[in-house]
Amino acid sequence: ARMWEMMNGLVFTFLILPQSLPLLIGACCNGKETEARQNEAGTDRGQKSKGLAGRHVRSYNHLQGDIRRRKLFSFQKFFLRIDKNGRVNGTKSKDDPLSILEITSVDVGVVAIKGLNSNYYLAISRKGELYGAREFGIDCTLKERIEENGYNTYASAEWKNKKRQMFVGLNIHGRPVRGKRTRRKNTATHFLPIMA
């Protein structure tokens, strides 16, 4: 009966808490392997911390290279698309394959957006024009921010107009808005990332 209770508890733990697997395996194996791993990890931590000058250094490497496949649905009810010629505009069709985008983290809060089927990167030029770039460059780095209304905004990480950020935006007709005319609070620049 005791063994049966332990097995039920293990099954429950595996179903509910999969991250507890290493702990359970360590407990079942008298903890020898787990103890050895902890000693190795402690040694590694001690070696790493010697190089730091008393200050905790944060590592955000887990955020870099993260790829999300999404559709960007604008507040104006358009899906952002990049066509096979590199033109950026909006479409009402939710089934348009050119509206499927890959959003890749390139730095903390900075992303690159690439059309999955067109292979063009979403870019903002120095003049604030939206276009599709064949190769990734400085025009393609965008600051991603979640606004108060739950929508995301994407601003050029490189270019500004008179110290004001320039945003990706679509007007009420689905055409791109020039970055110089965009503002964070303007709903033409607000997009909902929807899983594709």
TrEMBL record:
Domain of life: Eukaryota
Keyword Protein biosynthesis among UniProt keywords: no
Signal peptide (from-to): 1-26
Record-level Gene Ontology MF annotations: growth factor activity
Entry keyword Signal: yes
Keywords for the protein's UniProt record, in alphabetical order: Growth factor, Signal
Bilayer-crossing regions: none
PANTHER family cross-referenced by the UniProt entry: FIBROBLAST GROWTH FACTOR
Family designation: Belongs to the heparin-binding growth factors family.
Name this polypeptide is given: Fibroblast growth factor
